[in-house]
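Re-run with default settings, no changes from the original entry. Doing this only to confirm the output is reproducible before filing.
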Amino acid sequence: MGPAIAALTNGVELARALIRRPSITPRDEGALSVLETALRSLGFTCERMVFEGDGTDRVDNLYARLGSGAPNFCFAGHTDVVPVGNGWTTDPFAADVVDGRIYGRGAADMKGAIAAFVAAVARLLDAGGRPAGSISLLITGDEEGDAINGTVKMLERLKARGETLDVCVVGEPTNPTKLGEMIKIGRRGSLTAKLTVHGTQGHSAYPHLADNPIPRLMKMLAAISEAALDQGTSHFQPSTVAITTVDVGNAASNVTPASARAAFNIRFNDLHSGASLTAWLRKAFDAIAAGQYDLAVRISGESFLTPPGDLSKLVTEAVKAVLGVTPELSTTGGTSDARFIKDACPVCEFGMVGVSMHKADEHCTVADLENLTAVYHRILSRYFAKAS
């Protein structure tokens, strides 16, 4: 065993080194350099992919590959983290280890999983040398942000030069409370909309001389929030509409406003698309206020499903072998960069326990880091054994 491999077969110190970098989106703060140094020591060829422009922030990303042949097993993840917030009892970027837990922003989401995968690769190399094929890491600094200058553009660059991914595991914290509970094989789509309803300002004592937009807005919101979009599918829960804000900004009690605004989010399953839901919204709103509203829609991701198959079986078998539990194949939760990767290859997600992600005192346990490393190692070993 070489010294570089020996140092990386345990992922704790790499996880702590990554956590110590305050890489709040879109800043890198040296996080990718920490990872790149570790991967180069294992023989990976590393390429920085930096994207910016069109009024968007510069984002540093890293693509690393060991080997040049097929198949190419990819691990995808992100080194950027959400802002710290309040309520911490430890330094969020000190990576303190207390009572068997590594504390810090990104420990669960998802620097711990990145360190576990690197440790798994180190163990694979120590056990049998380079596999017959390639191992790659697709690591972005833009997952917690707008996801404009990260995974999407990295995949476009790989495709343009003819480089392919055969399968991908994303290291998102998929487990609700206990490692091994859940593998994500798909995600719901997400549509966010801003609705502005127009009227005519007037004195509240003379409503017949004005046109109050608020009652129309209330009817429009009721029309979509009280409707059942569907009953769910065999792999997805029912689609949901959540009204997130209603704003008038009217400081006067004797004036009806000229406009009223609201925003809402729809999380939808594979019975719908962003386009079909936009059409549904306009039909519902036109029936109440045709020509009297503006609607701005942003679709951050379409729903997708990687049907249960070889990849989910591979990950499930590894979880059962290491942890002794059978994980649920789920599509719950928010969006992830898997929504982009699914266009390139079969993808599923499995990572740390997510109960503390985005919270104060975010953490992962040392035991979970070791067990996740063991799961990833078994996935890699079995994958390349079948490929050879």
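The radius of gyration is 24 Å. Residues 107-128 form the longest helix (22 residues).
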